[in-house]
Specification:
The complex is a heterodimer of chains A (67) and B (144). Chain A is an alpha/beta fold. Chain A contains 2 helices and 3 strands, in the order βαβαβ. In chain A, 37% of the residues lie in helices and 15% in strands. With 144 residues, chain B is mostly helical. Chain B is built from 4 helices and 5 strands. Chain B has helices at residues 2-21, 24-36, 52-70, 125-141; strands spanning 42-43, 78-79, 90-91, 95-96, 110-111. The longest helix of chain B is centred in the first third of the chain and has 20 residues, at 2-21. The N and C termini of chain B lie far apart (55 Å). The chains are: A alpha/beta (67), B mainly alpha (144). At the A-B interface, β1, α1 and α2 of A face α1, α2, β1 and α3 of B. β1 of chain A pairs parallel with β1 (42-43) of chain B, so a sheet runs across the interface.
Chain lengths: 67, 144
C-alpha cells in the first residue's frame, strides 16, 4: 500500500485518521498488503520514527508515484 | 523529551485507529473493499498547506505512471464538492489496481479511494457513496 500526501500525523487528526485507516486495511487484508509505504514531504523525523514503530515504511524521496 | 513526544504521538495514532475501527464508516468501508479486491491504494489530502504542491507532485506522478503503464487516460483527482467535504478532502484515483487473483496490471481499473476526515455527521457517507459510484463506473470499464 502506498500512502502519499497523508499530511502531518503530529499536527492533524485527519492525517492520523488516514494513516490509522491504512494500518487497519493492512491488518484486515494482510495477504494483499505486506507493507505500507508512506511519503509526504511534511513528515518530520519524529513522525517518521513513529510510523516506523507502527510498522510503516516512510520514504524520504519523491518517487513521483513510480514505486 | 523527544522520547515522550514519540510516545505521545504513538498513543494518538493508536487512539485514532480505535476510533476509526469502531466507526460506522469503517464497517461500510470494509464491506465495499471486500467487493473491490483492491491491492494498491493511494491516499491523499490537500489539507497540509505548504506541502500541497510537493505532495501533489508525487500524486500527479502517480497519475502519469498509471497513464503510461496502461495507455489509459490518467484519472483526475476528484474534488468532493460537498458541504462537509470541501477541498480539504479529495481523492486521487490514480493508482493501478492489480487484480487480486491474476496479479496482472490489466489497466482496466483506475484506482481510487476516498479517505475522508472524521468530521461532522457525514463521516462515512461520502466514501461509501463514492465507492459505490466508482464501482459502477469500473464495472463499465472492465474488460476482463
Amino acid at each position: 500500500m502506498v500512502v502519499l500526501g497523508v499530511g502531518s500525523i503530529a499536527g492533524s487528526e485527519v492525517s492520523r485518521s488516514q494513516i490509522a485507516l491504512a494500518m487497519l486495511l493492512k491488518h484486515n487484508f494482510e495477504s494483499f498488503f505486506n507493507k505500507i509505504l508512506v511519503y509526504d514531504p511534511v513528515l518530520s523525523d519524529l513522525e517518521c520514527r513513529v510510523l516506523t514503530t507502527l510498522g510503516c515504511a516512510p520514504m524520504f524521496h519523491d518517487e513521483n508515484g513510480s514505486m | 523529551m523527544e522520547e515522550e513526544e514519540q510516545k505521545l504521538l504513538l498513543f494518538k495514532v493508536q487512539r485514532s485507529m480505535e476510533k476509526v475501527q469502531h466507526s460506522a464508516f469503517f464497517t461500510k468501508f470494509m464491506e465495499q473493499l471486500q467487493d473491490l479486491e483492491l491491492l494498491e491504494i493511494l491516499l491523499g489530502t490537500s489539507e497540509q498547506g505548504g506541502a500541497v504542491d510537493e505532495a501533489g507532485s508525487c500524486l500527479n506522478g502517480a497519475a502519469s505512471s498509471y497513464s503510461s503503464s496502461t495507455g489509459a487516460s490518467p484519472a483526475a483527482a476528484i474534488d468532493i464538492v460537498d458541504g462537509n467535504f470541501l477541498p480539504h478532502v479529495w481523492l486521487l484515483s490514480t493508482g493501478v489496481v492489480w487484480h487480486a487473483e491474476t496479479f496482472t496490471v490489466s489497466g482496466v481499473w483506475s484506482c481510487g479511494l476516498l479517505v475522508c476526515p472524521p468530521k461532522q455527521d457525514a463521516f462515512g457517507q461520502v466514501p461509501a457513496a463514492w465507492i459505490r459510484q466508482c464501482t459502477t463506473e469500473r464495472q463499465r470499464e472492465l474488460t476482463w
